Amino acid sequence: MTTLALLLALATSLFALCMGALALQRALGWGPLMLVMGALEGLKIFVLTPTVIDFPGVGAMRLGSVLSYMNALTVVQVVYLRGGLGAARQLVWTLAGVSAAFALLGPLLTNLLSAPEIRQPLHIDVEVLNSSARVEAIGNGLLIIGLSASVLLVNAFQRLNWGRWLSLFLTLLIVSAVDSVLFIAFALGSEIFTFHMVLSAVQGKSLMAVAFASLAWLSLVILRRDHGEPRTVLPGRELLAFLSFQRQLGQIEAQLLRDPLTEVYNRRYLEQVVPDLLHLDQMRQLPTSLVLVHVRSVGVANETYGRAVGDRVLAHAARCLELAVRRNDVVIRDHGATFVVVLPGTLGADAMQAAQQVLERLKAQPIALAKGAPIEVDACAGLAVAPDDGDDLGSLLVTARQRLEMARSDGAGQVVGLLG
């Protein structure tokens, strides 16, 4: 197998390891990915950075530069596109903190390995280790800048509708090229800064940009939860809050999780947060009830009075739902005139009673119109309970929708729950 093939195989393995940890996010949170990325950062500093490879047709390059750095850039972009700004910010600062910690450990390990009492089963070049620690300490600031810039750029290219793969590739190409110039100039010293060295670095990273962009695109296809659309695409001015890490970032994330018409949570919240609520109840060995509520009056209002009145009915129903549920329950607009009500730690019988009370409250609060009779808000509901109907969000939604269709066939004000 050629050197290039081995290099691509190693790049694929590193990225696949990170994507495997990312696939566990819904069940275990972001901890596995942070752990894997931290371990790979240590591998970069103590193994890959001191290792030099003769890149075919390009020249000598350090593996830490063409593999670990490019892998970190790519993983941050994937996390941003799937998990949002908050997750990407957490990963950026985790990598920066781990890199800084390893840089500080470098001199201590150098002194320890230099002691005459130490016997090394594997030979480690102390001078190379000490040099790597100094270089990593200088490159830590460039790491934060590069990771943050990758989020800004991939967001900008997505807004231009340049396609997922092209956005990833251009981001990797631009960030890695600028990083190479700055790293050679400031970390290695101006006395060895040459055009040939910069060209070799940019050529090697360009090839790896093609590979990692392809891997990232494929992972987003396999692991996607957003049907191919970017999870977070913001105007550039608002996205600059990512670099400052101020409270505004939290406000932006909160806005992205709200439906603008009804002001309740949206489907992004359903996919991103509700699985964690289910997992928490499972850990505490508690049931979780999920109620799908369809407001039938919205369609009638749209046909009779126009969409503006239909929107009023929808917003009114959302407010009634929020007032009818408990403090820890969650109201989410799924799509159209359908809402998801999540009741953590609630048995099926209690959820059935709560759902019936919600429908009665909706019917008891008609909407007054300037002209004509008030619009009575009628609805129906389907109920699913974990773990009886499944232990994940997908299976619960399927069951709840099936029972909602049965309730819609039976008429307004009906709730269909556990069968048999």
UniProtKB/TrEMBL annotation:
InterPro entries: DGC-Regulatory_Protein, GGDEF_dom, Nucleotide_cyclase, Rev_trsase/Diguanyl_cyclase, VUPS
Signal peptide feature range: none
Keyword check for Nucleotide-binding: no
CDD domains: GGDEF
Domain GGDEF, chain residue ranges per copy: 286-420
Membrane spanning stretches: 60-80, 92-113, 133-154, 166-186, 206-223
Keywords: Membrane, Transmembrane, Transmembrane helix
Protein name: GGDEF domain-containing protein
Organism: Inhella gelatinilytica
